[in-house]
Write the structure tokens for this entry.
Amino acid sequence: MTLFPAVLAWQTRSAALWGWPVFIGVVGTLGQMAVAEALKHADMTVLMPFDILKLVWATPIGIAIFAEVPDLLTWLGTAIVFASSFSIAWREAKLRRAEATLPRGSGAGAGGRLRAHGDATAEA
């Protein structure tokens, strides 16, 4: 569908400009591999708050490079994402502390955690 207009407007890149897409591809691939490796070694609830830092970096980069200032709804959405991430991380830390203080055999661990959230099927 877009091939025809693209062919009409196509301009071949100079050799000097081919380095940028290659650089972006390599850096993006390495970043995804790093996240996948981190997820092998740590719990997602620990790592995903760091993923939210993309919002922190994207805003000043967008302002500086593209002169794109976020509007009120963007700031509101960002605040909701940060608040919910903080809430989840706080709740998970609280559950871990509670599980650490329970004696062994008293329902601590995943089963006790699920029962604390009201899942009656986790009575193992």
In short: The CA atoms of residues 16 and 22 lie 11 Å apart. The mean pLDDT is 81. Residues 14-42 form one domain.
